[in-house]
Amino acid sequence: MKRRTVISGLAAAAAVPAVTALSAAPANAAPSAGSTTAKAKTSSSGDAVSLVFDKDDYTVLTTTITTGSGDHSVTYHFYKAVTYVAKPVDAAYQSLNLSVPVEIDGTAVDVSHAPIMLANIMGGYSSSSTNAATGVGYTGPIIGGPGGGAGGGAGGGNGAGEGATARQNNALYALANGWVVVEPGVRGRDNVAADGTYYGKAPACIVDLKAAVRYLRHNKHRIPGNTDWIVSGGGSAGAALSSLLGASGDSPLYHSYLKEIGAADESDAVFATTAYSPITDLDHADMAYEWMFGTLPLASGATAAEPYSTQLKDAYTGYLRSLHLRGVKGFGTLTADNYADYMVKAYLQPSATAYLTALSDADRTTYLTANPFITWSGGKATFTWDGFLSHIGHRSKNAPSFDALDVSAFENQEFGDATTNARHFTLYSLRTATGDDTAQLDADLPEKIRLMNPMHFIGQRNPGRSRHWWLRTGALDTNTSHNIVLNLAAKLDNLGDDVNSSLYWDGGHAVNEDADAMIAWINHLTGHRPA
């Protein structure tokens, strides 16, 4: 039951002017069959949805959240399924849940100037709806199984993956630290209208996420929290979306899409980005995957499909050269020839060292006995690239992994259109699958591919990008190449952004093992004092 009692400790909110939205055309697609759009938030006359946040329409909830500092009882105001655009295509997905802590461990808290955790819940580029949530920290759909699928989850690190040891929920940790938490739903590759048309293909998911940010800014002072301190987060495809949001802030390339759905006329830039195993840079992901995992067999013992694996690995040399990357920590120019050495020295050995240092002497001895490829000397772990690959053991995807020749991959579906469920989005797979060396991508795809790739905006030095980045993946993750997240880190570091990047030793896909550290990092950057 909704309650409209304002609990003491919640800061009074100032008034916001009437809706200011980019003028929009009426919604052009009906909700999908079986959709939970019972309260559609659009009038029968087609009038636009108000973008003024109703600060009194909440439920009071209490939960216990375990963090590194122990168990914390949190009472919060929960606002469910708030539509964030004036002309929603489907309000079941274009809505958000908002959680505002008002009391932590029996003490009232004022969060009027706290950071805002924007924890997207997308997994596998599928749609995510807030309607099923019963409180903060809704995990959302988990797509795929160990090592092979694309995990998702609120705030990052809640998906399904191989070797995962800890999946801490950033949304819950943020709430326990006195942050405001926003969990937006978005359209995705699986949305199908009653007439059979698709309405969530690229770039719908990033357009919706931008619209959610604009809604928050439009309601500055009505929604508690500091809209200058929005922290985007997600895991797997959700991490890709978080990275894209951070990289593309305020880009005019999305204007027409945002206008169409009636997004608020506000900034969609975010303060900081947290991304766990981002499945991104999709138009080059097949190349990167073969560079890293091309020598490994599949779990069945079969080798990767040839000549595709070798051809894609060879193509990565030119792509990496085109990025003009310099490695972090003064490594120098990155090439396909020295990248393995870079990954071992800058990321993998430090990760293994931290892991082994934290073990007891007995447990460390046991681990090293079971993993003789590691040399432990002077409190540091060393090993070769080949030794590390033997530790991974096998790859989880065949070649090509993302633009599958039979268009069966989630990413093929992400780049479908209104009447086609799945399409090729790389010339390599298109021409290989058709046998036509002159085949060209559909005319609309180049723009959509750019709109879905953070590397495009980082390469263009987009001035509205996030300047603070928390990038993580598991060392055993085989859902995408480690190069994807490490290239992001290097490119941003080269621009002078604040980049905190590392790997979780023996961690899997979309794993999150240091939520407390991430929260402390943001608190330090903003000067926010945790509750």
In brief:
Helix content is 29%, strand content 15%. It is of the alpha/beta class.
Can you describe what's shown?
The protein is an alpha/beta fold. Helices cover 29% and strands 15% of the residues. The strands form three sheets. Strands 1, 2, 3, 4, 5, 6, 7, 8, 13 and 14 form a ten-stranded mixed β-sheet that branches. A two-stranded antiparallel ribbon has the order 9-10. Strands 11-12 form a two-stranded antiparallel sheet. Helix 5 crosses helix 6. The chain is globular. It starts with 58 loop residues before the first strand and ends in a 5-residue tail after the last helix.
Task: Give the H and E element order.
Answer: EEEEEHEHEHHEHHEEHHEEHHHHHEHEH
Approximate strand percentage: 5-15%
User: Which fold name corresponds to the CATH topology of one domain?
Assistant: Rossmann fold
The CATH superfamily name of one domain is: Alpha/Beta hydrolase fold, catalytic domain
Helix coverage percent of residues? 25-40%
Can you count the helices? 15
**Residue-averaged pLDDT:** 88
Q: What Rg do the Cα atoms give? A: 23 Å
DSSP summary, beta strand count: 14
Query: What structural category arises from helix and sheet content?
Result: alpha/beta
Q: Ranges with pLDDT <50 over ≥5 residues? A: 1-45, 140-165
Q: What is the 3D form?
A: globular
Just give the CATH class of one domain: Alpha Beta
**Largest sheet geometry:** 10 strands, mixed
Report, as a whole number of angstroms, the end-to-end distance: 28 Å
Q: Tell me the CATH architecture of one domain.
A: 3-Layer(aba) Sandwich
Pfam families: BD-FAE
InterPro entries: AB_hydrolase_fold, BD-FAE-like_dom, Tannase_B
Keywords: Signal
Protein name: Tannase
